[in-house]
């Protein structure tokens, strides 16, 4: 079993966020690895919460489904979501980074979390968030994983070494939303950073291949792929076991 609670936290500018926290049912004196999960464009959904519950219940990790939009802000359609997403992606240092730091700090504040054993993963926009966690070299982060995430580097920042953070990227080979030029640029960035990275291109998989509901809420070019979903999740669990050992 695991314990689920909604937590409210703030960034340094006073913006308020609401995340979903899952902790193992064990003594508060025990120390557990912590994982931040960044959602796709809709914000916190059952998809991310189910993954968080598995991490807490079956693996003994503390898992926080993060909120980067703000308390009570959730989306059901892409055009509305883009009004918030575009400014965040356009200013990843000034607007997005503080939200990532706030989410990681909220996880660190849980008494049972081992602050030296942290990881992050996310879906689509959340994949970008997770990769940026590595790019910012935030303390205690051992691994980041991206599922069909945006891969663009942050413009204008130094390409510092990432050889002490394990990076895993799961990409759909048929993903029309992440062009090959972005894939190539990501590989160039990781090589320049001497990164410990794995890039998996899943055959027959489109964008949003982890979400069974994706085709219902998004335009063409997205779709669930059972093989890619299962294989990417298995690889994620193996990486977490490795870095938290």
Automatic annotation (TrEMBL):
Classification of source organism: Eukaryota, Metazoa, Ecdysozoa, Nematoda, Chromadorea
- Residues in the signal sequence: none
Top-level lineage group: Eukaryota
Spell out the InterPro entries in the cross-references: AB_hydrolase_fold, Dienelactn_hydro, FrsA_esterase
Q: Which Pfam families match?
A: DLH
Domain named Dienelactone hydrolase is located at 22-243
GO MF, one annotated term: hydrolase activity
List the source organism: Caenorhabditis brenneri
Q: Which SUPFAM superfamilies match?
A: alpha/beta-Hydrolases
- The protein in question is named Dienelactone hydrolase domain-containing protein
């Amino acid at each position: 079993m695991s314990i689920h609670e909604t937590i409210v936290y703030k960034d340094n500018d006073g913006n308020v966020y609401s995340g979903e926290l899952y902790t193992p049912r064990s003594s508060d004196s025990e120390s557990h690895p912590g994982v931040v999960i960044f959602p796709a464009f809709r914000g916190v959904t059952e998809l991310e919460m189910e993954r968080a519950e598995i991490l807490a219940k079956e693996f003994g990790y503390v898992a926080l489904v993060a909120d980067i939009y703000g308390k009570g802000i959730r989306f059901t359609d892409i055009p509305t979501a883009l009004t918030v997403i575009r400014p965040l992606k356009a200013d990843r240092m000034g607007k997005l980074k503080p939200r990532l730091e706030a989410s990681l700090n909220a996880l660190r504040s849980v008494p049972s979390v081992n602050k030296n054993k942290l990881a992050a993963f996310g879906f689509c926009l959340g994949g970008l968030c997770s990769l940026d966690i590595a790019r910012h070299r935030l303390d205690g982060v051992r691994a980041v994983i991206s599922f069909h995430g945006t891969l663009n580097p942050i413009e204008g920042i130094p390409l510092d070494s990432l050889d002490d953070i394990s990076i895993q990227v799961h990409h759909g080979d048929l993903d029309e939303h992440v062009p090959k030029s972005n894939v190539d640029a990501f590989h160039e960035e990781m090589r320049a950073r001497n990164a410990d990275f794995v890039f998996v291109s899943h055959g027959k998989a489109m964008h949003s291949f982890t979400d069974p509901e994706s085709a219902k809420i998004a335009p063409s070019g997205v779709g669930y792929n059972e093989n890619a979903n299962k294989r990417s999740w298995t690889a994620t669990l193996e990486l977490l076991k490795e870095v938290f050992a």
